[in-house]
Every structure is written in C-alpha cells, then in structure tokens.
From TrEMBL:
It comes from Bacillus gobiensis. This is Methyltransferase domain-containing protein. InterPro entries: Methyltranfer_dom, SAM-dependent_MTases_sf, UbiE/COQ5_MeTrFase. One of its GO terms (molecular function) is methyltransferase activity. PANTHER family: METHYLTRANSFERASE, METHYLTRANSFERASE DOMAIN-CONTAINING PROTEIN-RELATED. Residues 20-123 form the Methyltransferase domain. SUPFAM superfamilies: S-adenosyl-L-methionine-dependent methyltransferases (SSF53335). It comes from the Bacteria. Transmembrane segments: none annotated. Pfam families: Methyltransf_31.
Length: 253
C-alpha cells in the first residue's frame, strides 16, 4: 500500500464507488483493495472479493474476519467463468490481476454482464517493462535462471497489458464504452536495493515473490545477488527509490 496506495485510491474513484454501492473485486489476491472499497460503501453497501486462488482467498477471509467487516464476502472464482446474477453490481475493480487471465476477452465480457447499466469497471495493470525496471530487470534474470522463455506478446504475464491502445480495444470489444487509460507513476522505496530485494525474496505473493519460489535454494542466492547488483543504480541519498508505473483503465457499461 505504501507503493500503490494512491493508484488504488484512483482506481476506486474511477469505478465511482460510493456509499451503498455493490462492488465486485476481480483477481483480488489477499484483498486489501476490497477492504478499501468496503470502507467507502459502508454498512449499506456490499463488496464481493474474488480470486481463482483458494489460498489467497483464505488469507483475505481471515483479514476480513479480523477487521470485523460484515459488508464483504469472499469467493473462489475464475474471472473467465463468473457465475453471478446479471446487472447486479454498480462497480467492478481489479488491481494488477487482469494480465494473468488466459482468456481476457471472455473475462471482460462476463464482468460487463454483471454490471448494471452505467456501471463502471476500473482496473490497474502494470505498464511497460522499461517503465517498471524494479520488476522488469529481476524478471529477465529469473527467466534466465529457470530457462523458461519470456512470454510471447499477448500471452499472460506481468507486462501482457502494457499497451494502452490494445488495452482500450479489449475493453471496447467486451462492450464497454467511454473507455480511457491513464498512466499512474509510483516509487518503490526501501532503505537499500538489498533490503528491497530481500523483502521480495521472502514474500509469498507478488510477481517477484512467486518468481523466487521457482528457484532452488542455490539459484535463489545467486539470483538475489545479481538482482541487487542490477538495482543498485536506484540507491541514493534517500535510500532505494525504484521507479514504477501502472495503467489505470476504466470503462462504462
């Protein structure tokens, strides 16, 4: 949230989430943006937090329980096969999840179907790799260690939706109108490049945390050293400040 809290807030505003709104969160992960939406909609509103990963939903469910929220529900759900009542949500959101959906067009069409007329769908996706070196540089190193080829254009992956024109076209093809895309910059901060990489190496989620889990213990150590070296150029007097950028896309039903 320190990194993308502002971008998340912009997403909620773009989705026109208000007091009493019914909100669908797609590819919600552990759901902190679902909690933000729940605070906005209040007790008269409702948020359904969904993800294909049962382990992610388990974490989200526990966090919601600890927060004592009664206006949020969780559900394991594939975005490509949303089985919800048509025209039943005022808004939909998705934060850094759309890029990993194999059949994006099918998912967008299903999301459009469950929104009421005039409803908004707002989503954040990662911009181009060159605008996100703290992700792009490590990922290129990971692919070299694993031997897995880089995803082909159009295939699911961190930067799969980094072309704003293709992203807009996908939304329009699914039936959304008044589609707009804007770049949202952010800065990844830490005391040093080493601290930044160490935190990601020990994480259980996020693109870098998952990538580290693919490697053997020996390769994890080697890759970590190499990534730290690659990112040291972002160390400065104020610590580590790695540039990043998301695209915020919003469309109306």
């Amino acid at each position: 949230m320190r990194i993308i809290g502002n971008a998340t807030q912009l997403m909620l505003e773009a989705a026109q989430i208000r007091l009493g709104s019914r909100v669908l969160d797609i590819a919600a992960g552990t759901g902190d943006q679902s909690l933000m939406a729940a605070q906005v909609v209040g007790s008269a509103g409702y948020v359904l937090s969904t993800d294909i990963s049962s382990s992610m939903i388990k974490v989200a469910t526990e966090v919601i329980r600890q927060e004592g929220l009664t206006n949020v529900e969780t559900k394991v759900m594939d975005a490509q096969n949303i089985d919800l009542v048509p025209d039943s949500f005022d808004s939909a959101i998705s934060r850094h999840g759309l890029m990993f959906i194999p059949d994006l067009q099918k998912a967008l069409t299903r999301i459009n179907r469950v929104l009421r007329t005039g409803g908004k769908f707002a989503a954040l996706v990662w911009s181009k790799a060159e605008n996100n070196p703290v992700l792009g540089l490590p990922i290129s190193i990971f692919y070299r260690y694993t031997g897995i080829p880089l995803p082909k254009p159009g295939s699911p992956g961190v930067f799969a939706l980094s072309d704003p024109y293709a992203l807009s076209d996908a939304f329009r093809s699914a039936g959304f109108h008044e589609v707009r895309v804007q770049a949202v910059p952010h800065v990844h901060r830490a005391s040093s490049a080493e601290e930044f990489v160490s935190a990601r190496a020990n994480a259980t989620s996020g693109p870098l945390g998952e990538a580290f889990s693919w490697l053997s213990e020996a390769d994890r150590k080697k890759a970590k050293l190499e990534i730290v070296q690659a990112l040291r150029k972002f160390d400065g007097d104020n610590g580590f400040e790695g540039p990043g950028e998301s695209l915020l896309v919003v469309g109306s039903k």
